[in-house]
Amino acid sequence: MRDHALATAAEGAAGPAAAAAARAALAADAAVMDAARAAVVARLTTAMEAPGQAVAMAADTPAGRERRAACALSALAQKNGLGLPVVARRIQDVAALLAPLGLLPGTEAAWVNRAAGALRQLAAELRRRLPGPDDDPLLLDAGPIQALIARIDEAAALCDHTRKAVALAIKGMPALLGAWPERAPGLADLAARPAWAVDGWHRLAALRAVTAADVTTLVRALSANAPSWPAEVQRWSERGMAPPPALPPGRAVATSNLVALGPDPQALAEAALARLL
Of the candidates 19, 3, 100, 1, which has an alpha carbon nearest to the alpha carbon of residue 273? Predict the structure, then answer.
């Protein structure tokens, strides 16, 4: 869905700002995918070689890496009774699963990594906005801010927890590629969970960029857009998931403050989409 949304936005359906952002995101995704594929091959090669190689893969020459990778792919194919095209497809499939997660060397710019990082930055900013002892509690209530921070922290923690589970599942690259996909049940679902954990939450970071600086307005806008956890997430997490954060009470914030996002809806929509993509 994300790929289709980016492709549609890149054609200009959401305006020029979103189109430029979508093209940049697609280019970044392609670079991360290339790095993920190279990392899968490097990990496979290292695992298939005899211990004590004189030169590490990363330090070898391009020709040396290519030769060693070809030997590793041939050995894997022979061991599992596979053709080389089948091995190549499996490498592509596994790299595509792992690329968005930023688990492999060279894929740190993966969008799931960036989304989780943006959530942590947002939580840190909200912590700085918590009312101090000299603030009037009737004008600035700490409860909704703390609830929102807890929910954002929860999303980032769930992303990290599920990424660690994927990292454990891919430790044996030769065995994984030899078994893929029929004898590697559940990996595709497991690898989708970190992206699912931050899906929707990146709207909050985008909204922060286009919402008025007033903290009560910000908290109301973000709380209203905080996703709710479905039941199955309880099985993914190490801890119970919290209910959606409560909006600040009416006595603390005027309802009209909820919208104060700027005079031009089209400009606002393009700015938000550009940051989302």
Answer: 19
Residue 172 backbone phi and psi in degrees, to 5: -95, 85
The closest alpha carbon to 91, from 155, 49, 16, 34, belongs to 34
- Contacts of residues 141-144 at CB distance under 8 Å and 24 or more positions apart, as own/partner, are 141/248, 141/249, 141/252, 143/246, 143/248, 144/219, 144/220, 144/223, 144/245, 144/246, 144/247, 144/248
Q: Mean pLDDT score of the chain, rounded to an integer?
A: 82
Nearest Cα neighbor of 252 from 135, 126, 130, 141 is 141
Q: What is the pTM of this model?
A: 0.79
Q: What does the pLDDT look like over 8-34, one tens digit per residue?
A: 989 998 888 889 989 999 999 999 999
d(CA 202, CA 233): 18
How far is it, in rounded angstroms, from Cα 222 to Cα 204? 6
> 129-155 burial by CB neighbour count: b if 16+ within 10 A, else e?
beeeeeeeeeebbeebbebbbebbbbb
- Nearest partner of 105 among 167, 63, 151, judged by Cα: 167
